[in-house]
Amino acid sequence: MAGANDVIRLVTPRDVGLSLDPEENADTYVGNAQIKARAFANAVPPSLLGEGLGVGWVLADDSGLEVDALGGRPGLHSARYHKNVPDGDGCAALLHEMAAVPEVKRGARFRCVIVLVSPDGGEHEFEGLCEGRIGHEKRGEGGFGFDPVFDVGDGRTMAELTAQEKHHISHRGVAARKVAEFLVRNH
Question: Model-level pTM greater than 0.85?
Fold first, then answer.
């Protein structure tokens, strides 16, 4: 069990000199997160384990925006949606695609799945959701991706929230808290 004074150090592949860009070709969020987590877990040189880094648990996530009126699209392809539209402006493309959709059918959610790989290779999955709707215009300067068009339910978009507010309700924040609770309970 982790003690109250234990320090957990989070590192990225770049922090340990790795450049990873595994192909995310699974057909689920879990599958894509597994691809990334396994790539990092398999790429960490064993020599790092003895250098005080304490690399043992590895996590990776996959996430996307699911729009009800679009049958759950862009979903797994959210990042590609931005890349494959003119000027890379996925928000403008989504607003255009949703222009004729009535208010009552604009429901959407951000979904995040985190896969946590234990030192013995066991895998654990955690999901976070943030329910909302697609607005009618881009608003706000914060965040990234679809944040400026995702209304969180109080009249503000995700891009209009403070960082603290966003982390509290976001799909990634919800999933990350589940990971932290699991680690505290089990280690």
Answer: yes
